[in-house]
Design a protein that fits this description.
The longest helix has 15 residues. By secondary structure, the chain is α/β, with parallel strands linked by helices. Strand 2 and strand 3 form a beta hairpin. Helix 1 runs antiparallel to helix 2. The strands form three sheets. A seven-stranded mixed beta sheet has the order 12-11-10-9-13-14-15, sandwiched between helices. Strands 2-3-1-4 form a four-stranded antiparallel beta sheet. Helix content is about 35%, strand content about 25%. It is elongated and about 90 Å long.
């Protein structure tokens, strides 16, 4: 019967430590059952679980040789015998469900991690791995636009997923962080299409409000817009009322408004990275195609579906051409694009901020409420309110060094 030995190594990180230990193990024909290594602030933590044929060699002889080889490297080595029963229990754990918990903040504090991990323990989840996805930031460079992300890989099955999400939501609100909880499945890094709402998602504006200001009816339209975004007014009704107030507006103002649209934080970085990685992107908006196409040219968006302003003799008529793009239509368009691209809905990401985005957020494999109204944030499975749009890359498991 084989002896099972766990070897733990710690000390200053330097070249040659792993090579020295595995060279000894190779001479004793050890079988590697598990291996993991992490380096935090140039300090090494290495673990190797091995099986030894005790008919050929005893664990004590191997330990002595490992210690001789590593002594010049200045690291500490600890050995622990593992029982066959303990090993079998460890093997059986691999069948348990796995989830990813992602903590997003401007700066990560010990309090945030302490409370997040307390929630995972309370719901019966065990942490396997912890990784920092954000880059190293000098202390004097930490500011209001810093990004910090820590990813926790956990295993187990929470008894009440809704209660777990509610606890994470309460924690997010109280500590002003974002916490995402998602199944660790093959789809996580295999999304292929990202569908964005436009107004207040990709851009920091509601275009219809900007048109209303130009038409001299800004306050009236803004009030109706706010009611619709909070879900207190049906989108189609609110849209018709707002459009009617724009009747007679000159189309000459459209170019100026488009040129002055301000992108939300992280939009350019996110979309350029997605394009390089081969993702398709789409704007599915209850706004207007004129401005969607402007952003398409600026960012390289693949598809644009929005409302077509009806313009006659250079004036806005207060109507749109064709079918109004409301919440249900967004969900239909998302499904249509997924079928066109030959992918499943699980491979689609949807991002929006308003009540009319909820239908597409619910049908996408990953639906994200971005800086959303309270109703939308509470209804969506995932939300980002603390960081910019490029934080979506963290939810896909990408590190800062993977970005462009």
């Amino acid at each position: 019967m084989n002896d099972i030995l766990l070897i733990n190594v710690s000390g200053d990180d330097r070249p040659g430590v792993t090579s020295a230990i595995t060279s000894v193990l190779a001479r004793y024909q050890a079988k590697v059952l598990d291996i993991g290594q992490a380096v935090i602030h140039d300090t090494l933590a290495l673990g190797i679980l091995v099986a030894l044929d005790n008919g050929r060699v005893g664990a004590a002889e191997l330990q002595a040789e490992v210690e001789r080889e590593t002594a010049p490297l200045g690291v500490q080595v600890r050995f622990q015998a593992i029982t066959h029963e303990s090993y079998q229990q460890w093997v059986e754990h691999q069948g348990k469900a796995r989830y990813i918990v992602t903590l997003l903040a401007r700066q990560v504090s010990a309090e945030q991690i302490a409370e997040l991990t307390a929630v995972t323990v309370h719901h019966g989840l065990n942490i396997d791995h912890i990784n920092r996805l954000s880059g190293r930031i000098p202390l004097d460079a930490l500011d209001a636009h810093s990004n910090a992300c820590v990813e926790f890989s956990v295993r187990g099955e929470p008894a009440d997923v809704d209660a777990l999400r509610a606890d994470f939501m309460e924690l997010s609100t109280r500590l002003e962080v974002d916490i995402a909880f998602q199944k660790d499945s093959l789809y996580r890094r295999n999304r292929r299409l990202v569908c964005f709402d436009m107004d207040s998602t990709l851009i920091d504006a509601e275009v219809i409000d900007e048109l209303a200001k130009a038409a001299g009816v800004g306050e009236q339209v803004a009030e109706i817009t706010e009611l619709a975004m909070r879900g207190e007014l049906d989108f189609k009704q609110s849209f018709a009322r707002r459009m009617a107030l724009l009747e007679g507006l000159s189309e000459d103002v459209l170019a100026d408004i488009a040129a002055n649209l301000r992108l939300n934080e992280g939009a350019e970085k996110l979309i350029s990275t997605l394009r390089t990685l081969g993702y398709k992107t789409a704007i599915l908006s209850g706004g207007f195609t004129y401005f969607g196409r402007y952003l398409q040219g600026k960012l390289g968006i693949d598809y644009v579906y929005a409302n077509e302003l009806d313009i006659v003799d250079g004036k806005v008529t207060g109507r749109v051409v064709g079918q109004v793009v409301d919440g249900q239509r967004k969900a239909e368009l998302l499904a249509m694009l997924a079928a066109q691209e030959g992918i499943s809905l699980e491979q689609v990401i949807a991002v929006g901020d308003g009540a009319n985005d909820l239908p597409m957020l619910s049908v996408a494999g990953l639906g994200i409420a971005f800086r959303a109204k309270p109703l939308v944030k509470a209804s969506a499975e995932h939300s980002i309110s603390t960081l910019g749009l490029d934080a979506i890359l963290y939810l896909l498991g990408f590190r800062d060094r993977d970005r462009l």
